[in-house]
């Protein structure tokens, strides 16, 4: 089990408007394949798993969300921003089994705020 892989995410914040295409990027310090989760956290709410790059969007997540990437570079895209999409977005590398939300938020030091 690797514990020394560093993950970075950008931008840390970005101004957005309704209908914008939004792109958030994540980079791993070494190859992690496609073992990446993306989470969304709205103010006052628990984080929500949006997608697993291996299996795709979680049930109920709108198709305007998409994820791509393999190896070291990854992207979360919102094709046309809706007001309810304003939130903080986190990534999480997983190497064996899905992390709990608590683990994900503890291990992820960065989020992209909109």
From TrEMBL:
One of its GO terms (biological process) is adaptive immune response. PANTHER family: IMMUNOGLOBULIN LIGHT CHAIN. Gene3D superfamilies: Immunoglobulins. This is Ig-like domain-containing protein. GO terms for cellular component: extracellular region; immunoglobulin complex; plasma membrane. It comes from Marmota monax (Woodchuck). Residues 5-102 form the Ig-like domain. InterPro entries: Ig-like_dom, Ig-like_dom_sf, Ig-like_fold, Ig_V-set, IgV_Light_Chain. Keywords: Adaptive immunity, Immunity, Immunoglobulin.
